[in-house]
Amino acid sequence: MTMSHNIGTSTRSLHADDVLNIVSDVAPPMHLSTTFRYSDDPSALVPAANLISSDNYPTTHIYSRASCPNPTRFETILTSLLNGKAISYSSGLSALHAALTLLNPRRISVGEGYHGCHGVIALFTRLTGLQKLDLNCDPSLLEKRDVILLETPVNPKGTAFDIAAYAEKAHSRGAFLIVDGTFAPPGLQDPFLFGADLVMHSGSKYFGGHSDVLCGVLATQRDDWATQLLQDRLFLGSVMGNMESWLGVRSLRTLEVRVQRQSENTARLVSWLHSALHAPTPAPGSDESAIQAVLEEVFHASVQETEGDWLSRQMPNGFGPVFSITMKEEAKARELPSRLHYFQHATSLGGVESLIEWRTMSDATVDRRLLRVSVGLENWEDLKADLVKAFRGLAGL
Ligand SMILES: Cc1ncc(COP(=O)(O)O)c(C=O)c1O
Predict the structure, then answer these.
(1) Which of 128, 157, 193, 223 has its Cα between 20 and 30 A from that of 265?
(2) How do the pLDDT tens digits run along the chain, 397 residues long?
(3) Is 180 touching ligand 1 by the criterion CB < 6 Å?
(4) Residue 187 φ/ψ region, left for φ over 0, alpha for ψ in the -120 to 50 degree band, beta for the rest
(5) β-bridge mates for residue 202, sequence order
(6) By three-state DSSP, how is residue 233 classified?
(7) Using CA positions, which residue lies closest to atom 6 of ligand 1?
């Protein structure tokens, strides 16, 4: 079902899949079958060649590598939330793999971002000779059907890039813009409004939202691409599982309220930390002096310096719920997580619970003094108090 643009995000999360309510259960059932009976009516039989374009899709299923009820429901909701036809995958990286399989570029212009995406690019370099260019490469280096892959906000820092500017750069060369919007799910950012050709998400983060689902999503406003992506996925085999998509649907119901609260918590924490770090002449023994003794820098879109108003237009409802800090010394970065009570020391992000990661634990390329923080739904003042205690401890106060 296509819902009109002025229907709110949470309403879409709760009702975009109403069309799939073919049983009376209010909570959608979990379907585990991998195979589905064909119709008893010979005239209703749809041959395989017509499967993807069949009018019956998404309520007719044959084999779960092609489609099945729970992932289809998950995709139906996301199609409404993302303003483009959504296709789900077994992970964020398999979604990127599918995107590059679709576009098969000769060159890809990409920034630092999530290190795993560079792993996928390296696979393509091995298979196709795909050449990696810097994100800010000269536009003349890009040719028709090449790709700019823009992660915004970017992992691990949580700072943002101007989608419209990169869309213009790509399109001026006949290239395509893929936006990895993992750090700013619907409600915070719609990359299609600023010219993205393909939007990608690691759904393992905010879509799942409870640190218990691995999945990825691509969204496109081009019907031909959507059809090709579905056909490709049939052979890539990288479909999302039944259990995951069932959990995913349950999680999408609360996406907007979760993300709004996480975004607000983050803005408050970042603003407090940033002010404390830049407080002039803090009193000896104060929280500010402890923070200034050990903390080097805070990174987040809310404290990012930008030219013009692109950032507030791109993210009008708040910024992403992930930020990063660097400590003055690597040893303090190593120690900070074990001094915290509410922030669990683990990788990943986007769950209801706050996490912190000494980022070098999972990313070999990053500054060893950097910690990435994924802010959850706890009361922000409790999170602040936890951080204050840890910073004071590290500063010997
Ligand atoms: C920005 C970004 N893109 C893609 C991925 C990969 O997603 P997944 O772990 O679901 O494969 C991640 C994972 O952390 C990510 O942060």
Answers:
(1) 193
(2) 455 558 999 999 999 999 999 999 999 999 999 999 999 999 988 787 776 554 455 778 999 999 999 999 999 999 999 999 999 999 999 999 999 999 999 999 999 999 999 999 999 999 999 999 999 999 999 999 999 999 999 999 999 999 999 999 999 999 999 999 999 999 999 999 999 999 999 999 999 999 999 999 999 999 999 999 999 999 999 999 999 999 999 999 999 999 999 999 999 999 999 999 999 999 999 999 999 999 999 999 999 999 999 999 999 999 999 999 999 999 999 999 999 999 999 999 999 999 999 999 999 999 999 999 999 999 999 999 999 999 999 999 9
(3) yes
(4) left
(5) 216
(6) helix
(7) 92
Are the beta carbons of 376 and 356 closer than 8 angstroms? no
- Token pair belonging to 200: 């990608």
Q: Are 200 and 88 in contact (CB under 8 A)?
A: no
List, in order of start, the domains of the chain with CATH numbers: 255-395 (3.90.1150.10)
Helix (H) or strand (E) holding 198: strand 198-202
Which atom of ligand 1 is found nearest the CA of 349?
Answer: 14
Task: Give how far the C-alpha of residue 52 lies from the chain's centroid of Cα atoms, to the nearest Å.
Answer: 27
To which residue do tokens 């964020």 refer? 92
d(CA 372, CA 389): 18
Q: Is the peptide bond before 153 cis (omega within 30 degrees of 0)?
A: yes
Place of tokens 């939330």: 81
Question: Looking at ligand 1, which residue's alpha carbon is closest to its atom 12?
Answer: 202
Q: HSE of 69 in the Cβ direction (CA atoms, 13 Å)?
A: 15
Is the alpha carbon torsion for 223, 171, 178, 195 positive or negative?
A: negative
Q: Is 182 in the pocket of ligand 1 (CB under 6 A)?
A: yes
Rounded distance from Cα 260 to ligand 1 centre (Å):
21
Six token digits for residue 83? 């303003």
* Residue 244 CA, ligand 1 centroid: distance in Å: 16
* pTM for the predicted model, two decimal places: 0.96
Residues 6 or more apart whose Cβ sits within 8 Å of residue 23: 29
Give the number of other CB atoms < 10 A from CB of residue 383.
Answer: 23
